[in-house]
Specification:
It is a single chain. This protein is α/β, with parallel strands linked by helices. It has two domains: 245 residues, Glycogen Phosphorylase B (Rossmann fold), CATH 3.40.50; 186 residues, Rossmann fold (3-Layer(aba) Sandwich), CATH 3.40.50. It has 17 helices and 17 strands. A nine-stranded mixed β-sheet has the order 3-4-5-2-1-6-7-10-11, with helices on both faces. It is globular, with a radius of gyration of 23 Å.
Length: 463
């Protein structure tokens, strides 16, 4: 029997549109499914500016308030075959926010319209399975009279697309499923009606059943029972491969990391203008500067870097207050801290290859990708013990045989300071360092396993 045909809809997919981990996860899963011979029809918003080869343009029927509906089909040089959908207000310079960092005022119109267009494409193409991602596509369940077997992936539950109750009158099917204390909640509707709900790590699937992480939907998710599963994301092991990475000073693999990582450390220190002795660990951070990522917790630890004999290199952009805090740290401790505001792909790769340890002090982390990228580069992760970080990092103090890094038990400044101290001790012990590096680099962090788990779900709900 042939594998089911999938219509895969998301608000982001790298490199067409990328804001967070959703874009990389969507791209990685689709690429692996296609490599495995699965037919996947990708549907993304047309934010403008994306060129396609062999392009065809057609109109699609959408409600009057979402019109005009236009779909551009063609081939993207990285993503491959794709359908880019334009509805009312969709084309913007950023998928979600304006120049002041505020959400576009018509985001409800844009993504409810996008969902209506997805539904029309479902009617036209009759896929075996519809795979929706986060709230931006969740309203699709309200625009289809006959709902095919549907998968909802929850990349983050913190954003649910809740809007005013007037939308309940515009949704032709299952409007009651959207009703959330008088408001309209598309994520809730998909949670209630999807055949399968996938959280992006097993631990996150458990966490969202709790009041702390459930964002108001813990009870609703609990009602779905075995329909809720957790599947860890993968990473792009071609892009993040120290053996072939063109951005780094010296390529290496598991057999050569012990001698070839050192030149990358020197190159990183030269690039950022730091001097670190051979026994002084270099901590690296590549992150969005948002509350979730806990960079403010790390700022509580910078006073202790001299005591630890350590250095910190941070690359990131986002919240102005967090950026100002990092600039203060760099100015106050110039021999210990470097902050680069923005994103530089080459520097990011150099940090993964050249840092001794990689820090993620997240307050919550549905999956996380950077910790897997760090381990692929033989860089020991120091992370908080939650979500996908729990599922991917093994604490080397608790489990020396299988350890890959250090887990801070809580997302607090004190816990992170202790974790940095333990990380520095792990790195300074050459035997333990080598074992932890080898354990992390030996894991297959690719999408092969996660894609196979998704395919099992597709087969089960469509049979």
């Amino acid at each position: 029997m042939a594998d089911p045909r999938i219509l895969f809809a998301a608000a982001e997919m790298a490199p067409i549109a990328q804001v967070g981990g959703l874009a990389e996860a969507a791209a990685g899963l689709v690429a692996q499914l296609r490599a495995d011979g699965v037919e996947v029809d990708v549907v993304l918003p047309d934010y403008g500016g994306t060129e396609l080869a062999d392009e065809s343009v057609t109109s699609i029927d959408v409600p009057e308030w979402a019109a005009p509906g236009v779909v551009r089909r063609g081939v993207h040089p990285v993503v491959g075959p794709v359908a880019l959908v334009s509805t009312a207000g969709m084309r913007k310079p950023h998928p979600y926010i304006d120049a002041d960092g505020e959400g576009w005022g018509d985001n409800d119109l844009r993504f409810f319209g996008f969902s209506a267009a997805i539904a029309e494409l479902v009617r036209r193409t009759a896929p075996d399975v519809v795979h929706l991602n986060d709230w931006h596509t969740s309203a699709t369940v309200g625009f289809l009279a006959d709902l095919p077997p549907t998968v909802l992936t929850i990349h983050t539950l913190g954003q649910q697309g809740t809007s005013n109750p007037s939308w309940l009158k515009r949704i032709p099917h299952r409007a009651g499923a959207f009703d959330w204390f008088g408001g309209c909640n598309p994520m809730l509707a998909a949670v209630r009606t999807a055949a399968s709900i996938v959280a992006v790590s097993p631990t996150y699937a458990r966490e969202i059943l709790t009041e702390e992480f459930g964002c108001g939907l813990a009870w609703e998710l609990g009602q779905r029972g075995d329909a809720l599963v957790g599947i860890r994301n993968g990473i792009d092991v071609e892009q993040w491969n120290p053996a072939t990475d063109a951005h780094i000073a010296r390529n290496y693999d598991l057999t050569t990391v012990s001698r070839n990582k050192a030149p990358n450390r020197r190159a990183l220190l030269d690039r950022v203008g730091l001097t670190a002795g051979p026994n002084e660990p270099v901590f690296g951070v590549v992150s969005r500067l948002v509350d979730q990522k806990g960079v403010d917790l790390l700022l509580e630890s910078v006073h202790f870097l001299e005591y630890l004999g350590a250095h910190l290199v941070v690359l990131g952009s986002g919240d102005v207050g967090l950026a100002d805090g990092l600039r203060w740290a760099a100015a106050t401790f110039p021999d210990r801290v470097v902050f680069v505001d923005g994103y530089d792909a080459t520097l990011a790769h150099q940090i993964f290859a050249g840092a001794d340890l990689f820090v993620m002090p997240s307050r919550f982390e549905p999956c996380g990708l950077a910790q897997m990228q760090a381990m692929a580069y033989g860089t020991l992760p120091v992370v908080t013990d939650l979500g996908g970080l729990h599922d991917t990092v093994v604490d080397a103090d608790t489990d020396p045989e299988h350890g890959t890094g250090i887990l801070a038990p809580w997302p607090t400044g004190a816990a992170m300071t202790d974790a940095l101290h333990r990380g520095a001790a792990l790195w300074r012990d050459r035997k333990r360092r080598a074992a932890a590096r080898a354990n992390g680099m030996a894991v297959d962090w690719s999408w092969r396993g996660p894609a196979a788990e998704h395919l099992q779900i597709y087969r089960a709900i469509s049979s």
